[in-house]
Amino acid sequence: MSHPLASGVLVYCRSGFEGEAAQELDTVAAHAGVAGFARTERGAGFAEFVLVEPMPAEALLQAIGWPRLVFARQAVAVLDQLKGLPREDRLTPLLAELPTDFAVADAWVESPDTDDGKALTAFCRSFGNALVQALKRDARLVRDSPWRLHALFPHGDRCFLAVAHTALCAPWPLGIPRLKFPRNAPSRSTLKLDEAIQVLLTPGERERWFKSGMTAVDLGAAPGGWTWQLVRRALHVTAVDNGPMQEELMAGGHVTHLREDGFRYQPKRRVDWMVCDMVEQPRRVAERMGEWLAEGWCQRSIFNLKLPMKKRYTEVQQAFERIHALVHRRGGQVELRAKQLYHDREEITVFARVLAEK
């Protein structure tokens, strides 16, 4: 089977954050030594990094892939961009652009997560069925292939033809896990933590790091949306907030509510998890999170950073640098994984753990 050459990387992002996605693409590509430039259109729901010279798609996604990017819900390697597609037959020109002897395990037809993109949902569903049938007919659909075909339609006559390596890209259409709001959860913010656990952790990590009897602290917990997610995973939670917690959640016996300030509270002993969704400036939250990690008060943490209206990417980088500096000062190294999740808005969600200590 042939190895496809890519002309660039296409990332899906939240509408309104195209500039941050493009800025991040330029930065990550420069650090990886990949020559090219980012471009986008405000409100498009995606950004593109265009290569100076084509390169193997797998190598490209390893250098500028979804796991490395904060503002990307998905990152795929672009094979070609087709414009002016005839409405009477968009399938034939698309299939003609696939490399010879190239097979995929599946094919997804998508449109951006924007108002204009949502108008194409029915078309994408119908066209996706036709594309899969055509790939089966041509023996280009192979179950054990590591590749997945993506066709992103910003408009009905324009398509990005791209591929995703299943080990390097998000496993959900549009990069969005489909979650349902639990009716007995205290608030819709519960979906943020649920999505974070699905996106930022591997299946093995979820199994190892959420076990019955483990302990957690939820800073700024009220009314209990994030605490609810921890309790449903059988953790004992200390909920820190001056506000009230949901009575039903408290009745279960797995939560201790402390009416204290989350920026002042210190645990008496180390806990397995600390989570935090406090509304505060990202620098202040980063300082507090770095303190928890540097002092060894928790083994792992998931927290949100609320972003300003301007210089959002710069603010994220400064927050990360501050956390790294605080942990390094105490002789440790910290791993940070971050995403702007579907259930996030003007914020990103971060997973952190200390890798080495004194």
TrEMBL record:
Q: Name the catalytic site residues.
A: 306 (proton acceptor)
The EC category is transferase
EC number(s) in its UniProt entry?
2.1.1.186
Pfam families recorded: FtsJ (PF01728), RlmM_FDX (PF18125), RLMM_N (PF21239)
| Top-level taxonomic group | Bacteria
Q: Which reaction does it catalyse?
A: cytidine(2498) in 23S rRNA + S-adenosyl-L-methionine = 2'-O-methylcytidine(2498) in 23S rRNA + S-adenosyl-L-homocysteine + H(+)
Q: What family classification does the UniProt entry report for this protein? A: Belongs to the class I-like SAM-binding methyltransferase superfamily. RNA methyltransferase RlmE family. RlmM subfamily.
Family matches, as NCBIfam families:
PRK11760.1
According to the record's subunit comment, the protein's assembly and interactions are: Monomer.
Protein name as catalogued: Ribosomal RNA large subunit methyltransferase M
Tell me the organism.
Tahibacter amnicola
